[in-house]
Fold:
Amino acid sequence: MSDGVGRTFFERPVLEVAPSVLGCVLVHGPVAVRLTEVEAYDGAEDPGSHAFRGRTARNAVMFGPAGHVYVYFTYGMHWCANLVCGPAGRASAVLLRAGEVVTGLEVARSRRPSARGDRDLARGPARLATVLGLGGHDNGTDLCDASSPLRFRAGARPTESVRTGPRVGLARAGDRPWRFWLDGDPTVSTYRPYLPRRRSAAPRP
DNA sequence: ATACAGATTGCCT
DNA sequence: GGCAATCTGTATG
Structure:
């Protein structure tokens, strides 16, 4: 494991880990993605976190040891991936919001036929999970286990500077500046503030 | 039991 | 920029 990352890397506080994963590479089968944008979620302390209301079947992996992957299903159709951080039980995690496909472009394109161009392949959390082929069966995978199909490689320290700002699409605590990205990288997603969805006027027949 | 909001995306105007 | 798609967790009666 020359370029692998030990568990202690993820056991640090999530606000330390989040900026340090930028430029690192997540590999799953034929596709590898260089991370360019992430968000931190800090368990019970964080009203925006899935873990805020305590442990459930869905978020159980967040409460486990660091270095595991928390994959969740949202909006009835999308999967998103996180890296569990901090001490076990803290339930903090880094949401992988965007990245650049650096290996397996052909496979990535075939998994994202609607992508306008290569820079859009992993530009967004559900898109990133899609190009990597991540889904429910990957929930709980241990990145620090050598036999895991998922690999996390430390990247060269990025030349771009790391910027911070508010998190995307959160109704609560979205204003905490816990989003981290590589300044000027074209694969970083566009910022969208929280927008309440309009209720349908009439129920479906 | 029923209602609603959600760590999103893609298609439409 | 607006809005539908689609389903699960959580709140409320």
About this structure: The longest strand of chain A covers residues 31-42. Helices of chain A lie at 7-10, 14-20, 105-111, 125-131. The mean pLDDT of chain A is 92. Chain A is about 10% helix and 25% strand.
